[in-house]
Fold this sequence. Notes:
Eight copies of one chain form a homooctamer. Chain A is α+β, with helices and mostly antiparallel strands. Chain A has two domains: 1-54, Arc Repressor Mutant, subunit A, CATH 1.10.10; 64-135, Alpha-Beta Plaits (2-Layer Sandwich), CATH 3.30.70.920. Chain A has six helices and five strands. Chain A has helices spanning 5-16, 22-29, 33-45, 77-85, 111-121, 151-160, and strands spanning 49-55, 64-72, 90-97, 102-108, 128-142. Chain A has a four-stranded antiparallel sheet. The longest helix of chain A has 13 residues, at 33-45. Chain A is elongated, with a radius of gyration of 21 Å. Mean pLDDT of chain A is 87; it is low at 151-164. The interface between A and B is large, with 75 and 75 residues. β3 of chain C pairs antiparallel with β5 (128-142) of chain D, so a sheet runs across the interface. Chains A, B, C, D, E, F, G, H: Residues 3-63 form the HTH asnC-type domain. Chains A, B, C, D, E, F, G, H: InterPro entries: ArsR-like_HTH, AsnC-type_HTH_dom, Dimeric_a/b-barrel, Tscrpt_reg_AsnC-like, Tscrpt_reg_AsnC/Lrp_C, WH-like_DNA-bd_sf, WH_DNA-bd_sf. Chains A, B, C, D, E, F, G, H: Pfam families: AsnC_trans_reg, HTH_AsnC-type. Chains A, B, C, D, E, F, G, H: GO terms for molecular function: sequence-specific DNA binding.
Amino acid sequence: xxxxxxxxxxxxxxxxxxxxxxxxxxxxxxxxxxxxxxxxxxxxxxxxxxxxxxxxxxxxxxxxxxxxxxxxxxxxxxxxxxxxxxxxxxxxxxxxxxxxxxxxxxxxxxxxxxxxxxxxxxxxxxxxxxxxxxxxxxxxxxxxxxxxxxxxxxxxxxxxxxxx
Amino acid sequence: xxxxxxxxxxxxxxxxxxxxxxxxxxxxxxxxxxxxxxxxxxxxxxxxxxxxxxxxxxxxxxxxxxxxxxxxxxxxxxxxxxxxxxxxxxxxxxxxxxxxxxxxxxxxxxxxxxxxxxxxxxxxxxxxxxxxxxxxxxxxxxxxxxxxxxxxxxxxxxxxxxxx
Amino acid sequence: xxxxxxxxxxxxxxxxxxxxxxxxxxxxxxxxxxxxxxxxxxxxxxxxxxxxxxxxxxxxxxxxxxxxxxxxxxxxxxxxxxxxxxxxxxxxxxxxxxxxxxxxxxxxxxxxxxxxxxxxxxxxxxxxxxxxxxxxxxxxxxxxxxxxxxxxxxxxxxxxxxxx
Amino acid sequence: xxxxxxxxxxxxxxxxxxxxxxxxxxxxxxxxxxxxxxxxxxxxxxxxxxxxxxxxxxxxxxxxxxxxxxxxxxxxxxxxxxxxxxxxxxxxxxxxxxxxxxxxxxxxxxxxxxxxxxxxxxxxxxxxxxxxxxxxxxxxxxxxxxxxxxxxxxxxxxxxxxxx
Amino acid sequence: xxxxxxxxxxxxxxxxxxxxxxxxxxxxxxxxxxxxxxxxxxxxxxxxxxxxxxxxxxxxxxxxxxxxxxxxxxxxxxxxxxxxxxxxxxxxxxxxxxxxxxxxxxxxxxxxxxxxxxxxxxxxxxxxxxxxxxxxxxxxxxxxxxxxxxxxxxxxxxxxxxxx
Amino acid sequence: xxxxxxxxxxxxxxxxxxxxxxxxxxxxxxxxxxxxxxxxxxxxxxxxxxxxxxxxxxxxxxxxxxxxxxxxxxxxxxxxxxxxxxxxxxxxxxxxxxxxxxxxxxxxxxxxxxxxxxxxxxxxxxxxxxxxxxxxxxxxxxxxxxxxxxxxxxxxxxxxxxxx
Amino acid sequence: xxxxxxxxxxxxxxxxxxxxxxxxxxxxxxxxxxxxxxxxxxxxxxxxxxxxxxxxxxxxxxxxxxxxxxxxxxxxxxxxxxxxxxxxxxxxxxxxxxxxxxxxxxxxxxxxxxxxxxxxxxxxxxxxxxxxxxxxxxxxxxxxxxxxxxxxxxxxxxxxxxxx
Amino acid sequence: xxxxxxxxxxxxxxxxxxxxxxxxxxxxxxxxxxxxxxxxxxxxxxxxxxxxxxxxxxxxxxxxxxxxxxxxxxxxxxxxxxxxxxxxxxxxxxxxxxxxxxxxxxxxxxxxxxxxxxxxxxxxxxxxxxxxxxxxxxxxxxxxxxxxxxxxxxxxxxxxxxxx
Lengths: 164, 164, 164, 164, 164, 164, 164, 164
């Protein structure tokens, strides 16, 4: 989806207060409420924006929070990713370069649950060659709203970007 | 903060629709609206819950999305984490075990911007011994709302958890 | 097993002198001997406490003392652990994260015996992908009695523990 | 200390029941009680044998159980080991080959305590180049009593041991 | 430099025969020779295209052909790259992610010359933490002319590229 | 092919200007044009020299430029190399020592194309055990013309080369 | 074979001059020549000592000198070692710990021969999981005669050796 | 030193029996004894050949036999190598590529001596960043006499060697 300038300004306001009503956004931007409401709906449908009540896994009672890197048989990569996506404990999955083919994040009530997950769930997936588990001991920053890069930024980039 | 049973039920509803008004939640749970509004405020103040308009970095124009692992001089660990937290490009920071002391995530418009970040920003932080950058090529799952572990779950866990 | 305050005080005394008679413990704690004897029996039956004559493997004539890390086929993890447990040379087995799936300790009379063990015993176990052997050259500290974390400690922890 | 044949037989009995009284051992071995008592005292003084009430760290409330490998500045190795020995959380320290210069074990109430330990205690020790932390998720075998290798075993070894 | 459609067609012809005269290119494309000559000059000045007599290092007498990966102090990265660029033996330098901060290629008459290079030239550069040298034993493919991605390709990409 | 002194002087001139006509080279070297033209043809036929219009992949629209290292089943090494050679995205392939069995370079329009390449193309090749992808963020030096080592150089080498 | 004091003194003399005649050794040690000759024969038959004309591989025309580390399927370890022993290029084979299961040394006329060896010879051996090749660029020390540890040394050792 | 055909034939005979008298070699080759004796002397003086009474370190009482890989500060490489050469325990030193800058071999009476060596000797050498120790558990092949590559071999090589 191609973002318009108006989309960008709406996203900026919602990133400051995700529960701000469409009416208030319309007032701040000087646009009709129906236009704003329509844009927000389109952004949500296109999965550009998603309204989320983000919770802290530690506060929710999960004391074991990990990132697991996998080396896999490449022919099985897509299947493995689909199987990981289907697991409740797994909340983030990425295909990656730099030492692991897949990295995913998961939370568990404790180390015993992590152990069970590795044996029963990962152990049941074909094509995993090697796993490496990284425990998160503390998470001081966690922000998930990204703003669109403005046209001004892009122009600046282009000038600086000639070095490579 | 100790979560009550009511907190848990409110979080469950908000995790399904983060923009659901307090009035609707109150109706669904059969509680006075003022009670629900009060609990939500407390949850937000205690940073147990945070309302977020989550956006997709790829759609926002960031084509370079990375996880960077750091090995550091342990005496500098706290300072390094504080410096990383202050950087705009960095949206997640964790202290970790398992091969890296710190792992953080960041997004960039392109590889040239990542290069500049490494040279200018990471290069200016003392105590980093080694960096390893993992590029996210695709991110098929990304979910950030965790529900509280219910008392029922906990009871179950306790019985199973005696093995270690 | 839920430890009582009395259990904790008994464990503390036994950790100082594991051969202290129940009668002496009862005197020191001001409890009837039958109570103390009963608690000790329960602690032993629940495997919370185990009375051991710990010996030094070097003094016993074992000149090769190792920790071996294994990367394994996850589907075979439980079987592999069971097979390792059954081996006389192996005195400690753990499922782990951080680069190895299993770590175990073993002692041998010399390197030739370690070599035979690797070829004949590990070589006979299916599902081992990679082994890495670490030799202990010197062991200046070796203590195996852990005291229960007191309630006072726990309260302190809880206040400090909110950072993650 | 050179172990006699009688020492070996005493150790064998104590390894089966570490609280067996000297009188009972004397009866079983057909030796005067004073002799047995004298040998036991000598074994304990020479630190060949140590009577321990071994407890399970998980049952004691420690949910984070780790092995930490260190790469260090070799000139600082002895000092580092001495500093680790002095730390309460650390119950085992070994100088090693095979990827780490030092490996040690420690237990913590939770990951937050481990984090504090890394920052405050390890961070205060000079000469550590790199740490790698392995979490124990489950410990199905844990035995610490080693029996002396018998003369018969030694003879057998010698014949087999000519291959290297 | 923004490439025109004509630039693309000129590059395509030169990639097939780099010594093709401008006159012949002009005939094939149905453009005036002066226009073609002018475009070629601009492409060369902008370093988009470079005419090279590529030679095979093995045939030239270099029996040691290597890729060397470096881990460096990030604050010194730019200086290190500049010093590597100035070395005659080094014919390719890249800043990289994925385990090394810098990778470069070089050729030597034999291993003794490589050894001298490591000691005298790399040893004189500050900020190198670690080097890893990979020897090329055989090079069955080596092609250095890249064609511009056509507009048609780009349209195709865009449709397929929505997955990330 | 054994290079003559004249070959060396021709290569030197062509390395300075690869489009220099044979006539001009003949004048500069004081040789008949037919001789020079004949030598150049032989050098090209023997693949000692190749005339190339080298282009910059970044300028051509490839924003993802990588080196990929492979660990492979050795019995499949030759087949794997042949399959890599046949892939359009791959412009350089080498058999190597030092951690990878094969290293190759490739360029892609973006990370999504790299992802597709890994899944569809590498995933279809049998015998690959492990891949590691290194992204080039910037390429400040890229030179591909090697001059023959002169006889003078060789004499010098021989004297210095006795140390190994 | 148990070495006598006379054996030790003979070995010491031969280590200084391996071509010293038995008669000269007998004179220096004040023993009958027949005794000395008899001891030497026994030492050679027991493979305790071997008379060798050691040559420098570089001087013999081998410009590629390597150590290759292997990770193998443990069940195949003994077979793999036997196959390596049978290869002419391989002059040293060891079963090892510390990251590789087997390490061996070999020499080749050049890198092309090493490449052929890896593809044709190592590629034909079953059970090799991973190889890593280390090139020797220079070998400043190479000594292969070890003297027996004297009784005096052993006594010293025993006193110092109690620390582990 | 340039080896003649006669040198090659002498080396071949000595490699079969290093104590063969010059007179016998002369007879077998049909050359005057004085010529053979002269060639042998020149080969020894040029260190092309060295007569050695090779002994087995295990038989000599060294139960700990290791290869140690070092990563070093490159500026200190030459000094480090010189210091290693001067150590009695070290019998082989090589500058290497492929993960370590230096590899050396050493033998020790036991692990305690190895430990002392690491702390006292390696710990006293500046510029060592990292050590990795590999223990040899068994050494089934150990041959140190290399024959010169014959002219016939070289001709064969040249034809096959064009592939790289």
